[in-house]
Write a structure and sequence with these properties.
Beta-lactamase, single chain, 5-stranded antiparallel beta sheet, peptidoglycan glycosyltransferase activity, 24 helices, Penicillin binding protein transpeptidase fold
Length: 748
């Protein structure tokens, strides 16, 4: 029986095509014929070979690279995790300064100068002004909230900009994120080590060094920071560690330095200015160039507007009203004084401090501005344009407290301070110490001395014949007139009479302890001194004859301590001359201003005393004088010792002194000088341009204080009826009496 399959037909094999009749493919309806296969030519074989080779190489590279990439990713990931595990709490990294700061306060307790690395205290990303936070992000890292510490888009953009501007791909814009910049500020976690770096400057330079390897390290450290800290903590570190010019570290210090306000209170314009400093702090610092800083701030405002942090109206308002400096920053005060105070304290508390130090000083800002304005005014109105002549000013109280100091025409921090550093010949400004020695020995201001030609034989040098400035001789004159007219021959003669050793001892006692001349030229100011020391010596005359040590530092306190660690080192010292001698000398110096070489220093309504000084060859010109309240010294000359043209101490220096004192005394009540004139002295002229006697009022003639000498003078010459003009010659009898008197007075 045949088997039946249910539901299926019989199995039948497909019919094979007969060779030569073509394939069944394409023979049916709708099918296409298959083209015959071509044989490869030599080029085809070559191309095929190359393609196979490329596939093999690519496959091999891919097989290695994905494994290597995976390994590198694991290594980098492990490195990042390891680095993150080593990072300390963010709060411990806020203040990482290698050195401390010094804030100097004036006599009113207000800061006027800063040294070292200023840190205004910790701020956080949440505590600062939102405008500041937005300005920083808009300027430095617009994708800060999105990237993991490294921003590939930013790096690519920076490379494109660098290449388009003709620089190398990694020269110029670096594309660093805020996190990477913070990593650099932290020096990748490496603290300052004196054994590795010579000083803090070398440490910071090494931290800023840019190489491909360093950039790679920064990237690793930045990603580790992103793992360890929140975005707010990273931004907080950046806000506190960034350097912003003028010695400020952190935005709080910079805000107070430039705007005298905290970082929480910044306006959009102020925030934009501070954010603009990050690109180049020293270049864009507003204290260096306000206009340039404002231009940079305008660019930042544009970025803030573009990224939606400011409305068009707010941006326009910020541009129309750019940030301006606070008065204390706009008008830097007392740079030379601040440098001097820093040098006067111990280095470990000043320039080398690792603490934050507060120094109270004696500086009076009103007087400091007065001195600066006076110097500027005289040079603008009385000195030819382009002159390289320099000048310096010191103002102090009678106890040596320095109230103002101008170190030169371009006064400022870090410059050569001519008030404290320049040793210059004192010239006739030294003469008061000769008269101080004489008065202390009992001489009287009205004693007679001979202003006649004088020659002395100096051992090893031959004959020395001093001359007066005007090359004339007035014969017998009073000590008062000799000082008032700054006569050289009487000064030399008096120095020899009282003894050079006594003169030198008096000068050294008042603080002129340099290399004082040993010969008779001592009397003509051949020795050198600084303006500060000379002014302090004159303060000793004003205060009644006691030496003073000039000082500017009142006390020094570590920030946070309640008690100072040191007090002032200067002030009144031992007595050098009798008080009566000092008061008599003040009277004689008063006559210098009233009718002598210092008349240009007179100020109506005030009793003022002083002394002019001009050195040999007119290389230095001085005027130092005082009121009852302040001693002021002025020096003028060239740094290279070029002679001054047409300038003496009674000229421009006296005018600078007067302009200074007019401003210093403005608003004060005049007080009498502590002086004592000769017995029976009046208030008229005591200096006669013609010679021996001067007109006094209150008595027929001005007594010398010695009854015998007074009686002899009156018997020989009669009471003076007016100013002696030297036109009537003395008769032989009068000459004989005069010679005898001079011999008696000179001790011959």
């Amino acid at each position: 029986m045949a088997r039946q399959t249910s539901g299926r037909g019989p199995l039948v094999a497909d019919r094979r095509p007969i060779r030569g009749q073509g394939s069944s493919r394409g023979s049916g309806p709708g099918s296409r014929p298959v083209p015959a296969r071509r044989r490869r030519g030599p080029i085809g074989w070559l191309l095929g070979l190359l393609a196979g080779l490329l596939r093999a190489v690519f496959g091999a590279v891919w097989a290695v690279s994905w494994r290597f990439g995976l390994l590198a990713a694991l290594v980098i990931g492990g490195w990042v995790l390891w680095q993150a595990s080593l990072l300390p709490p963010a709060t411990s990294l806020v203040d990482g300064r290698a050195r401390g700061s010094v804030t100097l306060l004036d006599a009113n307790g207000q800061p006027f100068a800063w040294r070292g690395d200023q840190f205004g205290g910790m701020v956080t990303a949440d505590s600062v002004s939102p405008h500041l936070r937005n300005a920083i992000i808009a300027t430095e890292d617009r994708r800060f909230w999105l990237h993991p510490g490294v921003d590939p888009i930013g790096i690519a953009s920076a490379i494109r900009i660098n290449l388009s501007e003709g620089r190398g791909p990694f020269s110029g814009n670096g594309g660093s994120t805020i996190t990477q910049q913070t990593a650099k500020l932290l020096c990748l976690g490496r603290p300052f080590d004196p054994a590795r770096w010579e000083n803090e400057a070398a440490y910071e330079a090494d931290c800023r060094r840019t190489t491909l390897w360093r950039k790679a390290e920064e990237a690793i450290y930045a990603m580790a920071m992103e793992l360890r800290y929140s975005k707010e903590e990273i931004l907080t570190l950046y806000l506190n560690r960034a350097y912003l010019g003028a010695g400020t570290r952190g935005f709080e210090a910079a805000s107070r330095r430039y705007f005298d306000k905290g970082a929480a209170d910044l306006s959009p314009a102020e925030a934009a200015m501070l954010a603009g400093l990050l690109k180049a702090p020293s270049t864009f610092a507003p204290t260096a160039n306000l206009a340039r800083s404002q231009d940079r701030a305008a660019l930042v405002i544009g970025l803030m507007e573009e990224q939606g942090y400011l409305t068009p109206e707010e941006a326009a308002e910020a541009r129309a009203n750019p940030a301006r400096l606070a008065p204390t920053a706009a008008q830097p005060l007392g740079g030379a004084f601040a440098d001097w105070v820093m040098d006067s304290g111990p280095e470990f508390f000043t320039s080398g401090t690792t603490e934050d130090v507060i120094i109270r000083t004696t500086l009076d800002p009103r007087i400091q501005r007065a001195a600066e304005q006076a110097l500027r005014s005289v040079f603008e109105t009385r000195v030819r344009a382009g002159s390289q002549a320099e000048a310096a000013i010191v103002v102090m109280s009678a106890d040596g407290a320095v109230r103002a100091m101008v170190g030169g025409r371009a006064d400022g921090a870090g410059r050569f301070n001519r008030a404290t550093m320049a040793l210059r010949q004192t010239g006739s400004a030294f003469k008061p110490f000769i008269y101080a020695a004489a008065l202390d020995l009992g001489y009287s201001p009205m004693d007679i001395i001979d202003d006649s030609p004088l020659c002395m034989t100096i051992a090893g040098s031959g004959q020395w014949c001093p001359e007066n400035y005007d090359r004339t001789f007035k014969g017998p004159i009073t000590l008062t007139q000799a000082l008032a007219e700054s006569r050289n021959i009487p000064a030399v003669l008096l120095s020899e009479q009282v003894g050079r050793d006594n003169v030198r001892a008096i000068a050294e006692g008042f603080g002129l302890s340099g290399d004082l001349a040993s010969g008779p030229a001592l009397a003509l100011g051949a020795s050198e001194s600084t303006l500060l020391r000379m002014t302090a010596a004159y303060a000793g005359i004003l205060n009644g004859g006691s030496a003073v040590e000039p000082y500017g530092l009142v006390d020094l306190t570590i920030l946070g301590d309640s008690e100072p660690v040191m007090g002032r080192s200067g002030g009144l010292r031992e007595r050098i001359i009798r008080e009566q001698a000092a008061r008599q000398l003040v009277w004689m110096m008063w006559r210098v201003v009233e009718e002598g070489t210092g008349t240009r220093a007179r100020i109506p309504g005030w009793e003022l005393a002083g002394k002019t000084g001009t050195t040999q060859g007119a290389r230095d010109a001085w005027f130092i004088g005082f009121s009852a309240d302040y001693v002021t010294g002025v020096w003028m000359g060239y740094d290279d010792n070029t002679p001054l043209t047409g300038v003496t101490g009674g000229g421009l220096p006296a005018e600078i002194w007067r302009e200074t004192m007019v401003r210093v005394l403005d608003g004060l009540t005049p007080r009498p000088l502590p002086m004592e004139g000769p017995a029976g002295g009046g208030t008229g002229r005591f200096v006669d341009p013609g010679g021996l006697l001067a007109e006094g009022t209150g008595q027929p003639f001005q007594p010398t204080g010695d009854p015998a000498v007074d009686a002899a003078l009156e018997a020989a010459f009669g009471p003076p009826s007016g100013s002696f003009d030297g036109g009537t010659p003395l008769d032989p009898g009068q000459e004989a009496v005069l010679d005898a008197l001079i011999s008696i007075l000179s001790g011959q």
